[in-house]
């Protein structure tokens, strides 16, 4: 019989995705057939995988990452319901990998929740037929009493999967013991009885300082503390933009203090209000000497060596936000490498037509940045597909060649307005130091990533530092869990 453990939280951003991935890799190391699952997710970071019929569909990135940690191929059954926020309280609803409709929160619960629940149960049952263990990830807080009757990712999953529950609480923000106690008190009784233990996450300092508090909370609740997880990020891709700075703030990722400025480069990324698939940039942050900085929209580009425009869930409105902030002027005067990914690719063109489909306002056409001779026409059709392209050498990628793989998730069709290099197939364009492509996961291709990094260093007039071999982030997550947490056989057989 399949055993299911639900990794739930007292709130969002407590480390559920990391613990779930770590458990998946631990079990995979020991030869256990394990699969990840999240009944309902809300994220604009998606990956393209196969559905039960062999067609392409999309799921949230956390379950894609957890599948890789489990050393299996990801499928849409691992995240059967995905909500992709579009802004103004509306989300695109994706069921079994396919976009269904755009819904507001109220209408989703009124008209689509039962359908979503059936989809989640169907997917869980298919996974259970071929897995010994399912590591399910909850969403947000399991103690939202206004949502208990329709909490698909937490309460409903615990029930239909007959799951044991591990409850995570973040101590970084303070009040962890009160949060844990209150969460346990507010959970439905039958779900509360499933809690096998709790984990304190994101702790900095001497664990001995927690001893008296742990003893007291265990005595009050009867729930054992399974361990204390130190604040040690293994570097897994983030699920949502909570991990990014706010729109008007700056933050730097991948900054290595051991590398002097003369051997490092900075890649600037505008912090779009509706950014999606920002995890496309994460492989660059692991490159020695490469810093990825998220910029306020009104930033000049004097302190960056390259610019990457990320994807957007609402390309037109984010384009207009950049233009209103004057970013287009700064970009036009920038002489370093510029790369646009998906929505960022569309922005680099001359114009976008039928723009109302990607905007909250009634736009017929909007002008792009005009750095690539292309135009995009939006339509209701959505392209969701994994692709492999033959790469033709261009200067911006240091002349690398071969094949690159990734996935496309986008509305609209982009066509050249004049003959142009298309180095990554039909869905790309390159002119001098500017490159645009629909290919998400571009920088996950090691050869291409290395070529781009070399080009950035060359444009900056610098030499890159030597690259060192590091352990995978999946194994780092597994080591973090195994050295910090005591999980009994009653919860999961490790």
Automatic annotation (TrEMBL):
Keywords: Cobalamin biosynthesis, Glutamine amidotransferase
Span of domain CobB/CobQ-like glutamine amidotransferase: 266-446
Pfam families: CbiA, GATase_3
An individual GO BP term: cobalamin biosynthetic process
GO MF annotations in UniProt: ABC-type vitamin B12 transporter activity; catalytic activity
The keyword Amino-acid biosynthesis appears for this protein: no
InterPro entries linked to this entry: Class_I_gatase-like (IPR029062), CobQ/CobB/MinD/ParA_Nub-bd_dom (IPR002586), CobQ_GATase1 (IPR033949), CobQ_N (IPR047045), CobQ_synth (IPR004459), GATase_3 (IPR011698), P-loop_NTPase (IPR027417)
Active-site feature positions: 342 (nucleophile), 440
Cross-referenced Gene3D superfamilies: 3.40.50.880, P-loop containing nucleotide triphosphate hydrolases (3.40.50.300)
Ranges of residues in domain CobQ/CobB/MinD/ParA nucleotide binding: 6-233
NCBIfam families recorded: cobQ (TIGR00313), PRK00784.1 (NF001989)
Protein function: Catalyzes amidations at positions B, D, E, and G on adenosylcobyrinic A,C-diamide. NH(2) groups are provided by glutamine, and one molecule of ATP is hydrogenolyzed for each amidation.
Family: Belongs to the CobB/CobQ family. CobQ subfamily.
Protein name in UniProt: Probable cobyric acid synthase
Organism, scientific name: Haladaptatus pallidirubidus
Source taxonomy: Archaea, Methanobacteriati, Methanobacteriota, Stenosarchaea group, Halobacteria
């Amino acid at each position: 019989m399949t055993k299911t453990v639900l990794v739930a939280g007292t709130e969002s951003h407590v480390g559920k995705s990391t613990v779930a991935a770590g458990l998946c890799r631990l079990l995979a190391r020991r030869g256990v057939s394990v699969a990840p699952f999240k009944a309902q997710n809300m994220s604009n970071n998606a990956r393209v995988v196969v559905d039960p019929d062999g067609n392409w569909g999309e799921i949230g990135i956390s379950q894609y990452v957890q599948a890789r940690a489990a050393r299996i191929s990801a499928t849409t059954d691992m995240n059967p319901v995905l909500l992709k926020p579009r802004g103004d309280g509306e989300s695109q609803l994706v069921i079994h990998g396919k976009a269904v409709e755009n819904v507001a929160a109220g209408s989703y619960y009124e008209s689509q929740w039962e359908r979503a629940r059936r989809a989640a149960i169907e997917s869980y049952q298919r996974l259970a037929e071929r897995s010994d263990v399912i590591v399910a990830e909850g969403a947000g807080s399991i103690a939202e009493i206004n949502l208990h009757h329709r909490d698909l990712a937490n309460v409903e999953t615990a029930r239909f999967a007959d799951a044991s529950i591990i409850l995570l609480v973040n101590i970084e923000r303070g009040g962890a013991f009160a949060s844990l106690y209150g969460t346990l008190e507010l959970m439905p009784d039958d779900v509360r009885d499933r809690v096998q233990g709790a984990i304190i996450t994101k702790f900095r300092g001497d664990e001995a300082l927690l001893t008296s508090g742990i003893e007291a909370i265990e005595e009050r609740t009867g729930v054992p503390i399974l361990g204390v997880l130190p604040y040690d990020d293994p570097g897994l891709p983030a699920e949502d933009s909570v991990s990014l700075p706010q729109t008007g703030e700056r933050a730097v990722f991948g900054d290595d203090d051991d590398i002097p400025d003369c051997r490092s480069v900075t890649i600037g990324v505008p912090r779009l209000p509706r950014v999606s698939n920002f995890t496309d940039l994460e492989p660059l942050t692991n490159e020695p000497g490469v810093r990825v900085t998220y910029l306020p929209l009104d930033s000049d580009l004097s302190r960056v060596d390259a610019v990457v425009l990320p994807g957007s869930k609402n390309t037109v409105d984010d384009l207009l936000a950049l233009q209103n902030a004057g970013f287009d002027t700064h970009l036009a005067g920038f002489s370093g490498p510029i790369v646009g990914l998906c929505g960022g690719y569309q922005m680099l063109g001359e114009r976008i037509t039928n723009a109302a489909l990607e905007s909250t306002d009634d736009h017929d056409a909007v002008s792009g940045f005009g750095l690539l001779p292309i135009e995009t026409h939006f339509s209701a059709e959505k392209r969701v597909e994994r692709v492999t392209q033959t790469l033709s050498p261009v200067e911006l990628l240091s002349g690398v060649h071969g094949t690159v793989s990734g996935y496309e998730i986008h509305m609209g069709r982009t066509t050249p307005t004049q003959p142009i290099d298309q180095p990554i197939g039909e869905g790309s364009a390159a002119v001098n130091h500017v490159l645009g492509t629909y290919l998400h996961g571009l920088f996950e291709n090691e050869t291409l990533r290395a070529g781009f990094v070399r080009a950035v260093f060359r444009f900056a007039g610098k030499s890159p530092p030597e690259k060192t071999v590091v352990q995978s982030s999946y194994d780092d997550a597994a080591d973090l869990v195994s050295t910090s947490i005591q999980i009994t056989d009653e919860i999961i057989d490790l």
